Amino acid sequence: MDIDDLRTFVEVAQAGGISAAAVRLGVSKSMVSRRLVRLEEELGVQLLARTTRGAALTEAGALFRGHAARVCEEIDVAKETILPEGELRGRLRIAVPLTFGPTHFAPMLAEMARRHPRLQMQTCYSDRFVDLIAEGFDCAIRVGYLEDSNLVARRVGPIYGKLVASPDYISTHGAPETPEELAGHEALMQGTEAWKLMDGDQIVTVRPQGRFKADNGTALVAAAVAGLGIAYVPDWLTDDHVAGGALVPVMTRYPLPPAGAFVVRPPGQHPARKIRVLTELLIEYCNPPEESGRRATT
């Protein structure tokens, strides 16, 4: 039984269709179809019922799926075990935020590919929430404050931020001095999120309001520069604007608690070695010696 046929079946079952599985696997739809037909012929049963909306598991397919997934996982572990130390092969599919991703994480991922020439890397840049299991990703890089989930997370570095507004906004509306005063200001937000602030050693949570919302940090910074309100964003996005005078920090007596950059993966007993290697590389890049000495990373 061909392991590629088994892996293809597992991907189709998870993705719910041939087209989506082909994207995950990086092969043509016709190749996926041929592998499925070959596997079903070898087993002598129909595993998938093809429909106009995708592919649904038959009763036999539902029973076979778990076994096939475990076989594929064991084969991957076995391959890693016999590879020369440090060598990585196969595919690594990563979801990365569009904010920060192309500018900050892309060079690190390129270095990962340079160090491991036999590794196939597929990166999806998006600020939407990606379902790693349903969409077939090996792992994701996420930034901010992680919500509780069944995913396994490893912190790879700190992210610092601040509240900022334009001089024009402050001139017109004034600058808030306390968390309570934020309620009277326009907040530039991603959705309905809460903002966390430090009052000494205590974390204060506020729920601001605003008419301008965007799911991308760069867009929120642009709105702040245009004088539309106060933004709660990482320093990565605002340092140049603050240095140039286009933005001004506000409420500096109430700093933002350090957030983090994380590698998250689906639950499992042992992460694949390629995910461990990626994680260590990100830790190396996100915590340079001079940064570790300048700021605490806990």
Describe this protein's structure.
- The protein is of the alpha/beta class and 298 residues long.
- The chain has 3 domains: 3-82, Arc Repressor Mutant, subunit A; 90-158 and 259-294, D-Maltodextrin-Binding Protein, domain 2 (3-Layer(aba) Sandwich); 161-250, D-Maltodextrin-Binding Protein, domain 2 (3-Layer(aba) Sandwich).
- The protein is 42% helix and 24% strand.
- The chain is built from 11 helices and 14 strands.
- The chain has helices at 3-15, 18-25, 29-43, 59-82, 101-115, 132-135, 167-173, 217-225, 235-244, 273-286, 289-294, and strands spanning 48-51, 54-57, 90-96, 119-125, 139-144, 152-159, 161-165, 187-189, 195-199, 202-206, 212-213, 230-234, 248-250, 259-265.
- The strands form 4 sheets. Strands 4-3-5-14-6 form a 5-stranded mixed beta sheet, covered by helices on one side. It has a 5-stranded mixed beta sheet with strand order 11-8-12-7-13. It has a two-stranded antiparallel sheet with strand order 1-2.
- Strand 1 and strand 2 form a beta hairpin.
- Helix 1 crosses helix 2 (18-25), helix 1 (3-15) packs across helix 3 (29-43) and helix 5 (101-115) packs across helix 10 (273-286).
- The radius of gyration is 23 Å and the shape is elongated.
- The termini are far apart.
- The model is unreliable at 291-298 (pLDDT under 50).
